[in-house]
Amino acid sequence: MTVYFIGAGPGAADLITLRGARTLAACQVCLYAGSLVPTELLAECPPDARLIDTAQLDLDRITAELVRAHEEGHDVARLHSGDTSVFSAVAEQMRRLDAAGVPYEVVPGVPAFAAAAAALKRELTVPTVGQTVILTRVAQRATPMPEGEDLATLGRSGALLVLHLATGYADRVVAELEPHYGADCPAAVVAFASRPEELVLRGTLADIADQVREAGIRRTAVILVGRTLGAEQFRDSHLYSPDRDRDHVC
């Protein structure tokens, strides 16, 4: 049978994809991150499905549950918050399943940065202002950053930065990015994007850390920094330009 790694989306239960919901409804076993995945999604599971909250399980125990379900002949849904492609800890699970000879597939979901951009009502790439988005995080004691991926280095690009797992280090983020972006650079924090308790903070590098502190935000949030967040005067894109030759694909 097959293990399905499913991106559950950023929080709102109705932001799971149709494919994700259909797959969830067909699996007799579901492993989910109880602290992050909305419990409303579990209603999509079959009534007699075995539901396993992985919040308190380590990698060995999670793998054992996946292998056990496979050996019992069940398809398995492994629900992850957001999208599986970034900061999901899916890679090490796939590696374990490869070693155990257990087949798996991946069903993508709506990533947190996309939900944050929607909450801000902003396109993160704006013609002539910024065309690059960097998804990253900050170094922590448990998981250091690879060489060359520190904020000071990434900040030299001037690209729009989206930082996951970083609101507890907002002062450090500001200190490392201000020399490259300037204190007046637009910055925002979106916590619990797409959920009823969604919280949006808007400001600049000069004040965003103070706002985070005052709001008491510690987790389930992303920090965004870059000029496209405040762009108003910019050239229209070529995509819909009346001057574009629509007889040729470009």
TrEMBL record:
Keywords: Cobalamin biosynthesis, Methyltransferase, S-adenosyl-L-methionine, Transferase. GO terms for molecular function: precorrin-4 C11-methyltransferase activity. Its EC number is 2.1.1.133. Pathway: Cofactor biosynthesis; adenosylcobalamin biosynthesis. The keyword Methyltransferase applies. Signal peptide: none annotated. Pfam families: TP_methylase. The keyword Transferase applies. Belongs to the precorrin methyltransferase family. NCBIfam families: cobM_cbiF. PANTHER family: COBALT-PRECORRIN-4 C(11)-METHYLTRANSFERASE, SIROHEME SYNTHASE-RELATED. This is Precorrin-4 C(11)-methyltransferase. The lineage of its organism: Bacteria, Bacillati, Actinomycetota, Actinomycetes, Kitasatosporales. The gene is cobM.
